[in-house]
């Protein structure tokens, strides 16, 4: 009788601990997905605009600071890779066109689109 009671109490404690850990993991995943979804949508809209042959105006406002909330959810190793992808994205904005007579000529959208796709690897849903 006493061993059954002890086993029941231990089972409840273990179940509570496992349930708590699963809930924490679910909450972390939900927070990550909220951040990642917003960034993914912005990047996808930029890629679609670039595919139409137009420079996406939103590309000028998406910079290193835009990824700060995402960095808090990634490991140090993933952050280093993200930094490289952000640098590639920033340089691709300079390489995909040129200024002629005061106007920006967007002539290599594939460079920007490739950098956007590389960044999108970091904002996939979990």
Describe this structure in words.
By secondary structure, the chain is mainly α. It has 4 helices and 2 strands, in the order αααββα. Helix 1 packs antiparallel against helix 4 and helix 3 (76-95) runs antiparallel to helix 4. The mean pLDDT is 92.
Short key terms for the protein model shown above:
about 130 residues, 4 helices
Question: How far apart are the termini?
Answer: 45 Å
Average predicted local confidence, pLDDT: 92
Tally the beta strands: 2
What profile does the largest beta sheet have? 2 strands, antiparallel
Q: Bin the helical content.
A: 55-70%
Oligomer: single chain
* Helix and strand composition category: mainly alpha
Sheet with the most strands: spatial strand order: 1-2
- Kindly estimate the percentage of residues that lie in beta strands according to DSSP: 5-15%
Shape: rod-shaped
Rg of Cα set:
23 Å
Q: How do the SSEs run, as a string of H and E?
A: HHHEEH
pLDDT < 50 runs, ≥5 residues: none
Helical segment tally? 4
